[in-house]
Amino acid sequence: MNVKDLIAKEIIDLHQFFEKWYSAKVDNTSAEFNRLDSVLHKNFELIAPSGVKVSRLKLLELLKREYGKFQSSEKFSIVIEDIDYRFIGNEMCLVTYKEIGNSEDGPKNSLITAAFRRNSDLINNVEWLHIHET
Predict the structure, then answer these.
(1) CB 99 within 8 A of CB 83
(2) pLDDT in the model for residue 104
(3) What is the rounded distance in angstroms from the CA atom of residue 127 to the CA atom of residue 119?
(4) Taking CA 112 as the corner, what is the angle to CA 107 and CA 117, rounded to the nearest 5 degrees?
(5) Residue 36 CB contacts under 8 Å (≥ 6 apart), including other chains
(6) Which of 60, 68, 72, 96 is 20 to 30 A from residue 24's alpha carbon, by CA?
(7) CATH architecture group of domain 3-133
(8) Where do the structural domains in the chain lie, given as residue ranges?
């Protein structure tokens, strides 16, 4: 697979994990959570829509607490659209994509900019370095 295919697969696969995690369709175990934990670089950082920087550790703690948050929701889903490869280097890539979340609260659309790096030790051979969400 080329790097574009690997990154697209990782983005879609990870968001499918989020759907299952938030819907409690996977077990709340370290083994299941490792799907996320393993693909975030040790210096990963998220910039939230509010402008707040969230460290890898804080994000993982938050996501662990939110297990099953939408368990009773029949409408919860996450759709990924419009993956756009902004920069592709030998080892790194910058992409933007649209994330559309649906729940009883209605749709929530986000535009994400994410930086990835090749890492052949991981499930889709890439790791997340940084996310900026608007």
Answers:
(1) no
(2) 80
(3) 6
(4) 140
(5) 14, 17, 21, 60, 63
(6) 96
(7) Roll (3.10)
(8) 3-133
